[in-house]
Amino acid sequence: MRKPPKAYPVKSRSGLWAAKGVDPITLRRKNYFGKSETEAAAKALSSFGISDDYCLFSFYSYTYLPTVNGRSENWLGQIGWAMDKYVLPEFGHRDIRELKRPELQLFFNRLNRSMKASSVAKLKIVFSGVLRLAMADELIPSNPLAFVRLPTPDRVVKTALSFYELQSLLGASGPLIKPFVILAGCAGLRLGEAVGVTRAAISRDGVLSVRQQVQQMKARCEVSPRLKTSNSYREIPIPKPMLEALLECGQVSDIWVCSDSKGGYIRPKNITRELRLACERAEVPVVSPHELRHTFISLMDNEVEAPRTVVMALAGHAAQSTTDGYSHVKNEQKLRHMGRFWTQMSTACSPEEWATKGKIAG
User: Fold this and answer.
1) What is the spatial distance between Cα 332 and Cα 77, in angstroms, rounded to a whole number?
2) 361 domain-assigned
3) For residue 238, which of 80, 243, 339, 341 is within the disulfide window of CB 3.0 to 4.6 Å?
4) pLDDT at residue 195 above 90?
């Protein structure tokens, strides 16, 4: 028997509840209201009529969504954006077994005329995930999206700073941005992860536990325990000189490592602005927060020449092979390469200085 849809309190009207059902005329999603959680859920449930496990909306709502409850808020937002705004209005009332490649190709061709190629590609990933689950549940024999072709998105070339440029950026960074530059550029944290670091997350022996992030939502921010993937929950040992630099940046807060001028955490959108200004002061290429993380991974891989398993463990990437999955990286290994990274960054010099040092050595 079908479970009743989950009802939520209506924020704008106290004592009123709403649950998602189906409009009997348009067969599109519709809110049903009630004076109690049970009443709203019952009304929404009755709108479905006879249970149809092959209806795309039904399968998405009752089978697919429970499988992604543990994903990050950002990813759940992507799923809601793709399905609620584009896929369900077009195909929600359809029998999932009747969806064929030609009409799906036409649907994506139409989207390509009004959306960025990268956005269409993300939408396809979400929709395809729903259909793959239907295939795994043996509702459909194959995924009709498998051979839907999309234009190739323009390749974005990421900028990675050199050790000298990273050192210059640190020197030009003020208290608002310097902790983030260290956490992202010298420890590989993502934007939300770095902003969400508290002093309590760093143990007495200098091990940073990445367990939460600050997410930039529409008109608000929130602290979330959900990270991008299970591998994102990780431990990063911080060398003592680096730890001292991190905790002595002139922060106002005694709670947040990346704090604003009032003692709270700094908003992710403000990080982007402050980072650009710091890059301009340092006269280095302007990088985004993600490119700062990319800088750490690139330098650790190419300059420090750390093993791939160490780089992946520090960055929170998933294992690329079965062998990687069985190779557990200890904190001692990570600390050794983190120490080498910080030493090379701290002692980096400009190309002009290389030439001068070479003449002196000669």
Assistant:
1) 37
2) no
3) 243
4) yes
